[in-house]
Amino acid sequence: MLRTFARRLRVLTVLLLLTLVAAACGGADESTDAAATDAAASDTDASDAAAAPEGPTIRIRGQDFSESATIAQVYGQYLQAKGYDVEIVAPAGFRAEAVAGLQNDELDLIVDYIGGSQTELAPDTETSDDPDQVIEVITPAYEEIGATVLEYSPAVDGDALVVRGDSEAETISDLAGMDLVFGASAQCFERPQCFLGYTDPDIYGIEFADTVTLEFGPLLGEGLAAGEVDAVVWNTTAPQIEEQGFKVLEDDKGLHPAQNIAPIVMTDVLEAYGDQLSADLNTLSAAITTEDLVAWNVQTDIEQREPDDVATEWLEAEGLN
Question: Would 1 be classed as within a structural domain?
Fold first, then answer.
């Protein structure tokens, strides 16, 4: 009986020792694994910190209409996600103010429509619907103010002379002699590629019965639908054109220039970041389509969503943030 008890005691002692050894070994492995995990996480954090671009704050601002505001949010949030120090300034003014912002050291990055930049910086040069030709004009013009034009996007928001769907006109030339009331934003009345070109005898030579100044954006469509005006200058990506059955007239004299969007960056900021900033911005520009612009406008102008929310959602959907 005593021998049996002794044997059992020895067996239990051996089992207990084995259990303690196993526990000790397991604890060492877990401690080693935890240390390895912490080290890997530390290495990752160090790698991310090393990869973060170093340079000055990039100030970007959209013009004071929804599409431009959304575009500024898309570019600004994209760069922020890449690790750049970016300040997205509240939308203000239009193209003249955007260019002045670059000149006055208020802004470092704008995203403009290239034909509009040509109108602003080189109004007397010949326009073209070929974006490469427009780029040839605006690149040296921006260089003179210390800015660089990067690659233009396939996304286009062109100028459009728009009438109601029941109009007999099909081309802009058809408006001659129709005695229509013309509506547009204040800027249009000062531009050779807008009202001045429509009324120039050497181009379209249209005589309008009257003119009305309207805020650029949805109010143009409201004025047209209400019959307050008969023709308005709008943008081709305005969703209300299709929604309300309006008609975009053919620019049969080639007055309107190509209007792809393109980022324009102060050259000293580009140089501070090296080639990476240009590469990142060009990658984003290549990803934006005309259909994206229309979809963004549907969300901001019709669904009344905020441009920053629209931008965030698009960047997430495209895997760009």
Answer: no
Closest CA to 233 of 252, 244, 210, 217: 217
Q: What is the DSSP string of 128-161?
A: -S-HHHHHHHHHHHHHTTTEEE-PPPS-B--EEE
Quick check: 70 and 300 in contact, CB under 8 A?
yes
Distance CA 281, CA 279 (A): 6
Same domain for 110 and 171, yes or no, is: no
CA-to-CA distance for 155 and 285, rounded, in angstroms?
Answer: 8
Q: Is residue 21 part of a domain?
A: no
Q: What is the tens place of the pLDDT at every residue in 169-205?
A: 999 999 999 999 999 999 999 999 999 999 999 999 9
Would the pTM of this model clear 0.85, i.e. be above it? Answer: no
Domain count along the chain: 2
Question: Is the domain of 148 the same as that of 57?
Answer: yes
CATH of residue 163: 3.40.190.120
Same domain for 102 and 59, yes or no, is yes
Closest CA relative to residue 207, chosen from 186, 227, 231, 233:
231
Contact 269, 109 (CB under 8 A): yes
Q: Which range marks the domain in which residue 83 is found? A: 33-156+258-318
Question: Are both 222 and 263 inside the same structural domain?
Answer: no
Instruction: Name the pairing type of β-strands 231-235 and 159-163.
Output: antiparallel
Task: Find how far residue 12's CA is from the centre of its chain.
Answer: 74
Return the axis-axis angle of helices 307-318 and 290-297, rounded to nearest 10°: 140
Instruction: Tally the residues of the chain.
Output: 321
DSSP 175: G
SS3 at position 250: strand
